[in-house]
Design goal:
This protein has 438 residues and is α/β, with parallel strands linked by helices. Helix content is 39%, strand content 11%. It contains 16 helices and twelve strands. A five-stranded mixed sheet has the order 1-3-2-4-11. Helix 2 runs parallel beside helix 3 and helix 15 packs antiparallel against helix 16.
C-alpha cells in the first residue's frame, strides 16, 4: 500500500483506538475507584523501562491477539537489550471513570513513565506541549509510510510512532442483509434506507453504537473530498487560516447522526454510556443488530468479533464517494523527561524495526506502519483493505490540522447523543477553530 503526502497530508485516527487494545479487561478484582484501577508491575535491581498502555498480559483467560502480538515484540526487545518492561495499565470501568486519555495526559505531564501508547488527541496535546521527545533520529523511521510521519509530526518533530495503522469500518452481518435483499450501502442515503428496512422488519436497533466511535460517520462524510479530491494541502491550509470552516465540512455528518438518532436507528441513551464493544458487541454477535463499528483489529481477536456465527463483512463508512475507511494514527512516544530515556529509545527502536513489525503484523494481521511490510488480511476485512490499497480513505487524526479532530469530535458527538442540536454542535466546532486561530 502506498500512501503519499501529495494525496494525503495527514488524523486519530483506529482504535483508536486506536487505541487497538482498549478491549482488554482489567485484571485486578473488584471495582476500583475512578483513577485507581492502575496496574503497576516493576521489579527492583533491573534495567527497567516503564510503559503506560491499555494493554494487559496478566489475565490468563483472555486470548487477545493484539496483546499477544505486542508481547512478542517486547520479548524480542527484552532479550536483545537486557531490559525489563514494566507494564503500567489503566482501563476505565464505565463512563463515570476517567478515560484512558485523561490518565495518559496526567501521567505524561507529571513524568510518571518512560514510554506511552497514545491516542491521536493525546499525541497532539503532549507533542504541542513539548512533553514528548523527537523520534526522527531512530533508524526505523526510514521505513515508515509517509502518512504515519505526516500524521504524528508536530512543529517539525516526529513525536510518536505506531506498531500498526488503525483503520475503522462498519462490521456488517451479511446474512441479515441478504435475508432482506439489501445491498451493502455506499452512500448515506443508502445506509438510511437499509436501517429503515431493518426497523420495519422488527430489528429494534439497526446500528449498535458506543460513546467512542460514532464520529467515524462524521469524518467519512466531512473529509471524503478533502483527502480524495487531490487538493488536500490547500484545503487544510484554508482550514488552518480560518478561510474555511470546519463546521461547513462536518455539518452533513452531524445531520446524518441526528437522523439516525431521531428515527431510532441508534439508541442514543445507551450509546452515551456504553464502552467500546462491551455495549454493542453482545447484540451484534447474537444477531440482534446487523451493524456495528470497530477498528480493524477487532475482526481478528477472539475477545471481540473474531469468530462470529455468521458471514461478517467489514466495509467503509457511507460517503459521497462510496464506502470510506477512516484511518487513525496512534503511537508510542517517549516522555521528554523520561527517567530511562536511552533504554526507552533502544526499546522503541527494536519493537519498531522491520523484523519486529513483521512478527507483529503477521500475528495481528494489521496494516503495518512500515512500507516494507504488507498485511495478509482475513476475508472479512478484504472490502476495507481493498479501499485502503487503492488509497481511498480519510484521516481522523492529522497533526497538520490546528484543530485536533478525533478527541474533539468525539466529545461533540456525545453532546449530540445527550440532546444538543446540530447547530449547537457546530457552534462548538466553530469555538475550537476560533481558539486555534487565537
Amino acid at each position: 500500500m502506498k500512501q503519499t503526502i501529495k494525496r494525503n497530508v495527514c488524523k486519530l485516527a483506529a482504535v483508536c483506538l486506536m487505541v487497538i487494545a482498549a478491549v482488554s479487561t482489567a485484571a485486578c478484582g473488584g471495582r476500583p475507584k475512578p483513577g485507581e484501577n492502575l496496574l503497576i508491575s516493576e521489579e527492583e535491581d533491573e534495567r527497567i523501562v516503564n510503559l503506560f498502555s491499555p494493554m494487559e498480559r496478566t489475565d490468563p483467560d483472555a486470548e487477545n491477539t493484539a496483546r499477544s502480538a505486542f508481547d512478542k515484540t517486547v520479548l524480542m526487545a527484552e532479550e536483545k537489550l537486557g531490559v525489563k518492561v514494566a507494564y503500567r495499565t489503566y482501563t476505565a470501568e464505565d463512563h463515570q471513570d476517567k478515560t484512558y486519555d485523561d490518565v495518559t495526559l496526567e501521567r505524561a505531564r507529571n513524568n510518571m513513565d518512560d514510554l506511552y501508547l497514545m491516542n491521536p488527541d493525546a499525541i497532539q496535546m503532549l507533542g504541542t506541549e513539548g512533553k514528548l521527545i523527537d523520534l526522527s533520529d531512530l533508524s526505523c523511521v526510514e521505513n515508515l509510510r509517509e502518512v504515519v510521519k505526516a500524521a504524528n509530526t508536530i512543529n517539525g518533530k516526529l513525536v510518536a510512532i505506531p506498531q500498526e495503522v488503525v483503520a475503522y469500518g462498519l462490521f456488517i452481518n451479511k446474512d441479515m442483509f441478504d435475508e432482506y435483499n439489501l445491498e451493502l450501502p455506499e452512500t448515506p442515503e443508502e445506509f438510511l434506507q437499509c436501517c429503515k428496512v431493518f426497523k420495519e422488519n422488527g430489528i429494534e436497533t439497526p446500528v449498535g453504537a458506543n460513546r467512542w466511535w460514532l464520529e467515524n460517520f462524521v469524518f467519512a462524510q466531512a473529509f471524503a473530498d478533502l483527502y480524495n479530491g487531490g487538493n488536500t494541502e490547500d484545503e487544510i491550509a484554508r482550514l488552518n487560516s480560518g478561510e474555511s470552516k470546519y463546521s461547513d465540512y462536518m455539518r452533513s455528518g452531524f445531520e446524518f447522526l441526528k437522523e439516525l438518532i431521531d428515527k431510532g436507528y441508534v439508541d442514543a441513551e445507551k450509546a452515551y454510556v456504553s464502552e467500546a464493544i462491551d455495549g454493542e458487541g453482545p447484540d451484534f454477535l447474537a444477531q440482534k443488530t446487523p451493524i456495528v463499528m470497530a477498528y480493524w483489529g477487532a475482526a481478528n481477536t477472539e475477545t471481540a468479533y473474531g469468530k462470529p456465527d455468521f458471514n461478517m463483512q467489514v466495509i467503509g463508512f457511507p460517503s459521497s464517494r462510496g464506502q470510506m475507511p477512516v484511518v487513525t494514527i496512534t503511537g508510542f512516544g517517549i516522555g521528554s523527561e523520561a527517567e530511562h530515556l536511552n533504554d526507552a529509545k533502544d526499546l522503541l527502536e527494536t519493537i519498531l524495526s522491520d523484523e519486529a513489525l513483521e512478527v507483529y503484523t503477521k500475528t495481528n494481521k494489521v496494516i503495518s506502519p512500515s512500507e516494507n511490510i504488507e498485511v495478509d488480511c482475513i476475508p472479512a476485512l478484504k472490502p476495507l483493505n481493498d479501499k485502503i490499497e487503492e488509497n481511498v480513505y480519510v484521516l481522523a487524526s492529522n497533526a497538520a490540522m490546528k484543530v485536533e479532530q478525533w478527541g474533539n469530535t468525539c466529545l461533540i458527538v456525545r453532546k449530540l447523543l445527550n440532546g444538543s442540536t446540530v447547530d449547537e454542535c457546530m457552534a462548538e466546532v466553530d469555538k475550537l477553530q476560533q481558539a486555534s486561530l487565537e
